[in-house]
Amino acid sequence: MTTVIAECGNLPAAFTSFVGRRLETAEIRRLLCVRRLVTLTGMGGVGKTRLALEVAAASREAFADGVWLVDLAPVSDPSAVAATAAGALRVPDLGALPFLDQLTGYLAGRRALLVLDNCEHLVDACAELAGTLLSAAPELRILATSRHTLGVTGEHVFALAPLAQDDAVELLRDRAPAVRERSHGDEAGHAALARLCADLDGLPLAIELAASRLRTLTVGQLTDRLENRFALLTGGCRTAPAHQRTLRGMIDWSYELCAPAERLLWNRLTVFAGGFSLEAAEDVCSGEGIAEDEVLDLLDRLVAQSVVLTCEASGQRRYRLLASIQEYGRERLADSGEQDALRRRHRDFYLALADRIDRNWYGPGQEENLARLRAEHANLLAALDYEGEPRPRLALVAALSWHWCVGGFLSEGRRQFERALAAAPEPSEERARALLAAVWVAQTQGDLATADSWLEEADALGELLGDTWVRIQADGLRGVSAQYRGRPQEAIRRYEATLAAMTALGDERTAACWRLSLACVQAYAGDPRAAHTGSRYAAVAEESGDVWGRAQVLMGMGHYAWARGDCDTTETLVRSALVGMRGFNDHAMVARMVELLAWATAVGGAHARAARLLGLADALWHDAGSSICAFGPQMAEWHARCEQAAIAALGEASYRQAFAEGGRHRTRAQAVDFALAVDTDSGAGLDCGRDTAYDTGTECDSGTDAEAESGAESDIGTEGDTGTDAAIDVRETAPSTVRRRHAPDTADTADTEPASPAEGRHVCDVLLVDGDPTVREDARRILEASGHRVRSAADGLMGLTLFRQQTPDVAVLAERLPGLDGMGLARRIHEESAVPVLLLADRDDPADVVRGLEAGADDCLAKPFDGTVLLARVRALLRRTAPAGRRRDTRTSRFGDLVYCPVSLEVYKDGQPIHLTTTELKLLREFAASPGTVLTRDILLERVWGCAWAGDTHVVDVQVMRLRTKIGRDRIETVRGFGYKLRA
């Protein structure tokens, strides 16, 4: 078997042809159309696995979400069945949920075929897995192979008989080239082959083993030997099933035909689980009768005799034994007395491999190394199961940290750490370092309490053992916990100290880890040094081949640029980061990048594409068993704002349609391709032909003076070395050079110009956006005291959302804003409307005023300002842009005999005013904003009641009924099973 042949699936391609079984293939395919679980049963060697693979390959087109092989032969622990299935399906293990729950969630809603191969030694666990998955995933089909039925309700058992005579002879001819032409058309030769196949009971495995010997023996000689062998076997245990006696006899015969060195290698190869490489075989199996340079030749001979099978994985040739062959060899190995020594060599080989990858992680070959560890996953678990000396076990589980945290085996890593630590409680250097590695896993899972407990023990061990390295590392990991708890300044301090200490110790590998972490936390904290730190790391990573670290830095740089309003830079950096993540099985990180791309796209006005990207991210989060909320409340808030902006621009129905379209791109490769593609529908989005490499000469146009002096380029922020993202509130941490005096309160405005009699107390609708809560609140009170209606926001993105939800008469914007700065927001407003903009400059400097006016502001006022001046500037803008005496009802909405003014909140029916309660007004506001669009009860609950409501959705029905009695029962239509909509 060889390469993977489908992007959405993992079926191996066969080296040899499939012979016979036409009727069986057709029947099993038919059964899979009407039955959800089909189990192929039969004796060992009858060809269950090969037939199942043939059926699966022929059925690929019927399963849009792929056909997947789960080989359970190397699995000995029933509790590992779900984990093995999840690994085969490439389900990212990034959460603390049990594997069965993760797999259930992954397959729900997918149309896929799962081949559970070699279930007989794990029948109960396989039955539980099949029953649970079939209950949760109605479009799933399972094809199992087992010597025993699974006993699951609805199971259809297909008993596979040995090959028919003609098929058996054809198989023998196909596998034995020496007799193919010699017996073709020869009746006597055909009869001899038929007799041999009959003696082999028509078992494909036996036929293949016999075919390998027809190069040196005649058919008659081989038949004679088999007859003698089977005669002896018949006299064995009478209580054993006949087919088991025949198969063992076949393997006995094949074993005895091997040379002594071949038998020895056969025995030793059984120490491997799930396959092995030539390098592993040479290292583990040589010695005591086999020289290292003899292994290749002996292995080749075993392959020729069909004892060992070959396959391709990640471009490398690998070898494996069939389950029955492996079990037979293990018995012989146990009898030889060298099993324990061989398992120790097996463990030491994989410890050396893991340690080598760990030491050289921040360099080239990361994707290849992770792929190799994934291919060796079964062997790694077998090495960790070896109950020899406990210290090497601790060293191995710690050296595999990248495999656990970046390779997609987080929960398995947690389990292995807990087992290894429990088995070796004695104080030792290995335990201290394993504790530190375990802390990374716990922090990545969000279990900070356990992480802190392990940190304390590691620190205490470091002090006890006099290990300075351990204590320094423990302090750095305390910084990670601080970062995840929202204390970025503490994290920065600890990271800087740890980086300096590791550099002084000459440990450049660990120093690189903390240099990356420092760049990340600086970026998310809005530290002006982030650009310089991140740019340097990205440049070094590019030169050294650190693809993973560079992708994390570029994603973070994109986040920092986005927080400062430079969405073009964000898009460029995130695209480059996504390209870098192609080779990593990290669904959650790709989801983070897609989320950020959606946020930047929404600010750019391409709301349809933003909705598609949010749908894509949602699918990735689902597959990862996580969500944007796991990275902190601020990230969840940005997500919600992006979603609200898209809904406001597109309407609920169009948003949901675009969201669902993005969610169809489910695999990691599809996700990256879709996120990088041009949005042909809207003309917005990203050009796939653009150079996505990190450009160290591209300056962020929103850089601070400190950054300019340091020569920093594109801004940065990313996850720390732990592979997760700590959500830091940019609004709270963004640097500010503004110095403001206290604005006058309401009493200070008593002498200001009163509201115009034509407009009553409501003079105009003001959009006020300022990140300083004190200035924002004082300005709001000044404006409202003069009769203006004020809607305020603390960041540019929310300001843009409010603007698009309801057009104001004038916008008052602070120059420096998180998310989208004031000048960027002013440009957006002028692109979409004629609304005048008053920009609040950070300094009383003519250059700042000029810069603001050139950026698109209609007027500019420097901070700190006087409240009367603010009011005078607003009135001046209104006089220049609006005709005198303009009435507020010019922006009213009419729905038949119903008139609604969203500004004055007045409602008329047949020309008569209607009094509505606050809740009824909010309901009408939502319906009027999207006439003809169905609004579900959940949407109305979220928009009208928000977090204040803890009851059920029945309150919506009650309030809608009351609103209907006032505005007309036919005005709001019930869409059964969904919600309500306003008739336009």
From TrEMBL:
> According to the UniProt entry, which residue ranges have a biased composition of type Acidic residues?
702-718
Q: Where is the OmpR/PhoB-type domain?
A: 890-984
**From the UniProt annotation, which stretches of this protein bind DNA?**
890-984
Q: Where is this region: Disordered?
A: 695-759
The answer to whether keyword DNA-binding applies is: yes
Q: Which Gene3D superfamilies match?
A: 3.40.50.2300, 6.10.250.690, P-loop containing nucleotide triphosphate hydrolases, Tetratricopeptide repeat domain, Winged helix-like DNA-binding domain superfamily/Winged helix DNA-binding domain
Keyword field contains Ribonucleoprotein: no
Note the Pfam families from the entry: Response_reg (PF00072), Trans_reg_C (PF00486)
UniProt keyword list: DNA-binding
What InterPro entries is this protein classified in?
Answer: CheY-like_superfamily, OmpR/PhoB-type_DNA-bd, P-loop_NTPase, Sig_transdc_resp-reg_receiver, TPR-like_helical_dom_sf, WH-like_DNA-bd_sf
Q: Which residues form the Response regulatory domain?
A: 765-878
The record's annotation in PANTHER family points to: HTH-TYPE TRANSCRIPTIONAL REGULATOR RV0890C-RELATED, REGULATOR-RELATED
| Name of the molecule in the record | Response regulator
Species: Streptomyces coacervatus
